[in-house]
Structures are given as structure tokens and as C-alpha cells.
Amino acid sequence: MKESVFRKSSVENLSKPEQLNTYIKSATPATWAILAAIILFLGAVFAWIHFGCIYTRINGVAVQKGGKLYCFADAGELYRAKSSVKVTVNGKDYVVDNPKTDPIKLVPDEDAEHSLVMSVGGFTSNEWICKFELGSDADNTEDYIQQAIVTIEEIRPSTFLTGGDHG
């Protein structure tokens, strides 16, 4: 007779009916907790991809002078903007449709305003910047100068991942 590939004791243990009543432990609570954490993480990533936004921001300087509010920003960075930009000053947002004005070279010795813009905005001498009008700050009628945040681009992660238009 031919010898079996399996051991005799193993074959006998398989055929015992007592073992049919025992439960097979497939997953521990720790395994379920890890699975729940992974599902939660993937859900958060999915939500961020569809509802989140990636911003490209640069520093600028806001100057209110004579009732008009102006913004100074780096010309090279500003020219990366596709269309409009959002400027935040004192928690208030201003949308500017075409901020790409002719660049100005910062020369602090020739203009006192340039010196102020350099000190507040961290710009250097002979740097090219753009100056554009934001309107007026109705909450504050006094002249002032302070930092501003210029958002030049907003991209949805889903658009970025699919290679769509980033405008």
C-alpha cells in the first residue's frame, strides 16, 4: 500500500467531531481598532482631496495713504498669479482682478515710502515690486503701513492630482 503524505495522527485529529464546536479566532479587538483607524484616515484623506484647498501665499505690505489702500508685493511672485489675487489686511479680504502693474524698483534713498515698505515687508534695496490699489479701509481712516498676505493661487487637491486647470 502506498504511504500517505500526511501523518496518521494529523488525519485522525481532523476527523474528530469535538473540534467542530470550537471557534476560530480570526480577529482580535486590536486588529479591529487598527482597521478602524486605517478606514478613518483614508476617509479624512478622501475628504481633504475633494473639499480641501492648497494656497500659494506671499508676503506683502499694505499702505493706507490719503484714504486709499495700496498693496506692495514681489513682482516676480505676483506675475505667477493667473488672474485675480486675494489680499488679507487686518483680517479683511480684498480681491484684486489684475494686480500685474508695472514693476517698481525699490530705491530707499529716493522715496521715503520705499524705505517704509522695505522695513515692514522685508524687501531689499533694488528689488522689483508691484504696487496696486485695494480700495479703502472703511474701518480705519488714518494712514498706516503694515504687513499683508497675498494669496496668488488656490488649488484643490483633486484638480492638482488629475492635472486639471489650477486657476
Explain this structure.
There is one protein chain. The chain is α+β, with helices and mostly antiparallel strands. It contains five helices and seven strands. Strands 4-3-7-1-2-6-5 form a seven-stranded antiparallel beta sheet. β3 and β4 form a beta hairpin. The longest helix is centred in the N-terminal third of the chain and has 23 residues, at 29-51. The model has no long low-confidence stretch (mean pLDDT 81).
Short summary:
It is built from 5 helices and 7 strands. Strands 4-3-7-1-2-6-5 form a 7-stranded antiparallel sheet.
Low-confidence stretches: none
Portion of residues in beta strands equals 25-35%
Structural class: alpha+beta
Q: Count helical runs.
A: 5
The whole-angstrom Rg is 32 Å
Question: What is the spatial order of strands in the main beta sheet?
Answer: 4-3-7-1-2-6-5
**What coarse outline follows from CA principal-axis ratios?**
rod-shaped
Total strands: the figure is 7
| Overall pLDDT confidence | 81
H and E order = HHEEHEEEHEEH
Helix content: 25-40%
